Amino acid sequence: MLQDIPTPTQLDPLESTGCILETERLALRRPTLADTKAIAHLANDRRIAEMTRRLPHPYLHDHAVEFVNALSAGSDTVFLIELDRQPIGLVGIDWREPEVPELGYWLGVAHWGQGYATEAARAMIDFTFEEFAVEHLISGARVANPASRNILEKCGFQWSGVELHRFAAIGSSTPVDRFKLSRSVWSSLKHWGTSTRR
Ligand SMILES: CC(C)(COP(=O)(O)OP(=O)(O)OC[C@H]1O[C@@H](n2cnc3c(N)ncnc32)[C@H](O)[C@@H]1OP(=O)(O)O)[C@@H](O)C(=O)NCCC(=O)NCCS
Q1: For each of the chain's 198 residues, which pLDDT tens digit applies?
Q2: 118: number of CA atoms within 13 Å, CB side?
Q3: Other Cβ atoms within 10 Å of 29 Cβ, number
Q4: Phi first, then psi: what are they for 185, rounded to 5°?
C-alpha cells in the first residue's frame, strides 16, 4: 500500500522492515556501522567526490561513521549496493524536500562501466514510487558527468534545466543538469521490472 508523502518521523520504511531489494545481479540493503570501513574505502576517491555534492575528499572512516549514524535521524533513505555480498556503492533518496525527493548514487571506481548503477537506480526508483505517494522524483548530474546523465535518461528522467550547485570536494559551485521523472513515465517504463523484495 502506498504511504503518504513522508513526514520527518516516518521517512524510512527500511528502519522497520529491514527490507532488502534484489536485482538481477545486486542486493540493496540498509547500511550499518559494520559497513563503514568498506564505505570509506570505496568513497575515498576524488573521481567520485567531484561528481557528488556532499561527499568530502579525502573521505575518512569518521565520515562514514557520521554518515551511517545520521541515517536514523536524517532525511535520506539509503541502500548499500552489494555485489556477491561485497559493498560496491550507495544509492539513495534525499527527502529534504518531501514533495520532490531526489535520487543520488555513487559506485566505487573499480565497479564502473558494468551497468550496476543503472540497475541499482531502477530498483531505488521502483521502491520509491511503490512505497510513497510521490508524483515526481528529481535528480541531477554535473554537466561534466555524461555517465550519470546517461543513467538518468535510461531510467526515464527528462531534462528540466541547469542550476548552479556547490560541491564540497571542489569547494565551489558548478553547473548541474537537472532531471525529473514523473510517476506516469515510470509506470509506462516499468517493464524493466528487474527488482524483487524480501
Ligand atoms: C556515475 C556512475 C554511478 C556510473 O556508474 P556505472 O555503473 O558505470 O553506470 P552504468 O554502467 O550503469 O551506466 C553508465 C552509462 O553511461 C555511459 N557512459 C559512461 N561514461 C561515459 C562518458 N564519458 N560519456 C558518455 N557516456 C558514458 C555508459 O556507457 C553507460 O551507458 P550504456 O549502459 O548505455 O552503455 C559512476 O561513474 C560514479 O559513481 N561516478 C561518481 C559519482 C557520480 O557521478 N554519481 C552521480 C551523481 S549523483
Answers
A1: 465 555 434 455 455 447 899 999 999 999 999 999 999 999 999 999 999 999 999 999 999 999 999 998 877 899 999 999 999 999 999 999 999 999 999 999 999 999 999 999 999 999 999 999 999 999 999 999 999 999 999 999 999 999 999 999 999 999 999 999 999 999 998 766 556 676
A2: 16
A3: 17
A4: -65, -45
Instruction: Report helix, strand or coil for 193.
Output: coil
Taking CA atoms only, the protein residue closest to ligand 1 atom 11 is 115
**Whole-angstrom distance, CA of residue 46 vs CA of residue 28:** 24
Helices (H), 2-115: 13-17, 36-43, 46-49, 61-71
- Which residues contact ligand 1 via a Cβ below 6 A? 48, 51-52, 104-107, 112-118, 141, 145-148, 150-151
Q: What are the cell numbers at 71?
A: 541515517
Residue 93, SS3? strand
Distance CA 130, CA 1 (A): 8
- Residue found by looking up cell 531502477 in the block: 122
Q: What is the pLDDT of residues 128-157, one digit of tens each?
A: 999 999 999 999 999 999 999 999 999 999
Kindly list the structural domains of the chain, giving each domain's residue range(s) and its CATH number in brackets, ordered by start: 21-197 (3.40.630.30)
Measured from the Cα of 154, ligand 1's closest atom is: 34
Reduced to 3 states, what is the DSSP secondary structure of residue 23?
coil
